[in-house]
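Listing S7. Sequence submitted for prediction.
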Amino acid sequence: MDHIKGINRQSSLIFDFDGTIADSFEFLEPFINELPLQVKQKINEVGIEALRDYSLTDLVKITGLPVIMIPVLFLKFRKIFADNLAKIKPVSGMPSVLWELRKRNYPLYIVTINSRDTVMGFLENNKMNMFEDVMATKGLFDKHLRLRKLMDKHGIDTNNDYYIGDDFRDILAARKVGIKVIAVSWGLNSRKLLEQYQPDFLISKPEELLNLPL
């Protein structure tokens, strides 16, 4: 993995939402309560923090979560987030960083597994209307398709542009469409796991985005 060398001034920055921009993890408990009892018991046994070290495939194996439940849980996650929209806050430091990036004329976008209406409501609630477009996926595993659609819509160049996310799947999605990745270690997956997927850059706090030599 390279040291951070900087982002070209013409770069477009595409952000994941949950865990990257929105600090949504305090609402993991109501989400976990939707899981089967044996899965909840295993999560409590292993510990939520330790689970950040595992990929989705490994989580299924470790917790015994039935694969067939994943699409249902995806929809429940969206509902829980929407129901708690007024309570969810941005990741500490993220709003000022995003406004500074916008001030520096970087085009900012969001591609998310959450619903577009919910994300737009969050941005409005938190006075974060600095994004040119917000695009939502239809499921957990089609983020690369939405990235491609956004790139085609806005003429985004793969040579200079970045997807910024907290999940190893964000790295995989970006690789599929040929753009670079800035992984963030304050969200869903731990630094240890993210390093295994070799993102272009890996940062531990939002302010590091502003420390890049432009």
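Caption to Listing S7: primary sequence and predicted structure tokens for the chain studied. The longest helix spans residues 70-83. DSSP finds ten helices and eight strands in the chain.
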